[in-house]
Write a structure and sequence with these properties.
Blueprint: E1 12-13, H1 18-22, H2 24-40, H3 49-69, E2 73-75, E3 81-84, E4 87-89, E5 93-96, E6 102-109, H4 115-124, H5 135-154, E7 162-168, E8 172-174, E9 180-182, H6 187-190, E10 191-197, H7 200-224
Parallel strand pairs: 1-4, 6-7
Antiparallel strand pairs: 2-5, 3-4, 5-6, 7-10, 8-9
Length: 228
């Protein structure tokens, strides 16, 4: 069973929200999957060696990000933050102040094969329209900020307008033959991060896309529950 909160069941979440922007068959498949989750009562399972690697090293990456950046970072332990009844996000961590107020959302990636390709994209800054991060991570960041903003709003606190995307290469890995390999690289070389700022136009688009997708999801749920 997924380690993620069952509150996410049938809801559109930050990690895959880019699929609603993509449209076409990708969008339709995502909506179908959310309807199926509601009817079955459990999420579609997805796991491979790359996702397992990321889960295993997530806390290590968050701690390392705090060390390199000098920011106070709280591991959110897979807590789900709803935006509304149809969507929400599960940030890996949040930058906080000394009163433990959320100041920025934080998502960590631990790529096993594409770390240096992603580093080159960061260095070359080839995606200014997405604040120089891959578009799916840009949309994910916008939605995570939205989710923490909703949390803050209920407490009478300011909105969250910053998101940190962290890429972390573990100090040790396993080669093709199962041998342990240790990289002779300093932490500052194995970790880089980018700050993404809130884009309120995009965040409004997310809410609108989710609203329409939710109507289609709910119609599918009714169809799925009909006898044939």
């Amino acid at each position: 069973m997924s380690r993620l909160s069952k509150e996410r069941l049938g809801r559109f979440t930050a990690s895959e929200i880019h699929k609603l922007f993509t449209g076409g068959a990708t969008r339709a498949s995502y909506i179908f999957e959310k309807a199926e989750e509601i009817v079955k009562g459990h999420p579609k399972e997805f796991s491979n060696k790359h996702t397992d690697h990321g889960h295993m090293h997530e806390h290590e990456a968050i701690t390392s990000f705090s060390e390199v950046s000098g920011l106070v970072v709280e591991n959110l332990l897979q807590q789900y933050f709803p935006i509304n009844e149809n969507c929400g996000a599960t940030p890996d961590a949040a930058v906080v102040n000394f009163s433990n107020v959320y100041l920025a959302s934080n998502d960590v990636k631990c790529p096993t094969t594409t770390f240096f390709q992603q580093k080159m994209l960061f260095i070359e800054k080839k995606k200014p329209e997405y604040q120089n991060v891959p578009k799916e991570m840009f949309y994910q960041g916008q939605m995570q900020m939205l989710a923490l903003t909703e949390h803050n709003k209920k407490l009478g606190l300011p909105p969250v307008e910053e998101h940190y995307l962290v890429r972390y290469l573990t100090a040790m890995d396993t080669d093709y033959f199962g041998n342990t390999v240790e990289y002779n690289l300093q932490l500052e070389t194995r970790l880089f991060y980018q700050k993404i700022l809130a884009d309120y136009r995009v965040q409004a688009q997310i809410i609108g896309l989710v609203e329409q997708a939710s109507k289609e999801r709910d119609l599918l749920v009714k169809i799925f529950k009909q006898p044939v």
